[in-house]
Design brief:
Order of helices and strands: EHHEEHHEHEHEEEEEEEE
Number of strands: 13
Shape: elongated
Structural class: alpha+beta
Largest sheet: 4 strands, antiparallel
Number of helices: 6
Radius of gyration: 27 Å
Strand order of the largest sheet: 8-7-11-12
Distance between the termini: 23 Å
Strand content: 25-35%
């Protein structure tokens, strides 16, 4: 069998934790006005409230949109028990006001563009992940793609099965059918190289969209150790605080004396970078 990934697209500003934050801020304000306690001022109280709003989010996803669902936090802070009510309809409206679902559509559109396919090319869409259990997420995806959106896979089970198959394929103790995975390089990576004798210096780029695993071959005319530096090519697109340097590598090649004959070619080192 073979699996080919056509593209990757993501948005770090939209996910389950952003939905939790909407609920957290709403109830922090409500409980401050109602009980005169602010969970944002105390770490333990904040943790207790966050645990309950995550549980509320899951309950709301399973309930009708207009059903009032309770939230209770015992001894949230200062020995005060707090409680409130919320509906799925209110949550969807609050998320929509912040443009969360528009971000989701934009991310899906970017994935299609990078893959070079259109919505009409799709026969169906399978969604996985905790936030995909929210009915509004599946509804918006159905509207965007114009096709059936299903949720038949168990994400944790799929990862476990895939990891087990990958281990079995690499183990000499098991005989399994080969399964090839061609991934898609989501970020361009620049590999800089230079030799100790200064005879070779340059760089090669592993472009975005390049199939992975794969490699680019280098043929360097040198007889001394080589230093490699791996870094993201587009530093501006990285999330704040992320280092652009992936790794630095030193290849301790045995130094060879240069040829004495005039016109003789120096030794050649062949590298596969990828």
């Amino acid at each position: 069998g073979k699996l080919k990934v056509l593209s990757h697209a993501s948005d770090r500003a939209f996910g389950g934790k952003e939905v939790d934050e909407v609920l957290f801020q709403h109830f922090a304000d409500e409980f401050k006005a109602k009980y005169k306690v602010d969970a944002r001022t105390e770490q333990k109280a904040s943790l207790r409230l966050r645990m309950q709003v995550e549980r509320l989010k899951k309950t709301l996803s399973a309930n009708p949109p207009d059903l009032e669902t309770p939230i209770n936090v015992e001894c949230m802070m200062q020995d005060t028990d707090v409680s409130g009510m919320y509906t799925r309809e209110k949550l969807e409206e609050a998320c929509d006001k912040q443009g969360m679902f528009d971000k989701m559509a934009g991310t899906c559109g970017r994935a299609l563009e990078l893959a070079g396919v259109t919505k009409e090319d799709l026969a169906g869409v399978e969604v996985v992940g905790g936030s995909s259990r929210m009915p509004v997420v599946r509804e918006r995806l159905r509207e965007f793609f114009g096709c059936n959106v299903t949720q038949t896979l168990n994400a944790a089970e799929s990862v476990a099965r895939g990891a087990s198959l990958a281990c079995a394929m690499r183990s000499p103790a098991f005989k399994v059918r080969e399964f090839e995975i061609a991934d898609w390089n989501s970020r361009a990576v620049k590999v800089s190289y230079d030799s100790k004798d200064k005879q070779c210096k340059g760089e090669v780029e592993l472009e975005q969209g390049m199939p992975m695993p794969s490699s680019k071959k280098l043929q360097l005319k040198t007889a001394s150790p080589i230093n490699l530096k791996w870094e993201y090519a587009d530093k501006a697109s990285l999330p704040p605080g992320t280092s652009h340097v992936l790794a630095e590598q030193h290849l301790p090649l045995k130094e060879v004396s240069p040829p004495k004959d005039k016109g003789a070619e120096p030794p050649t080192v062949k590298l596969a970078v990828g």
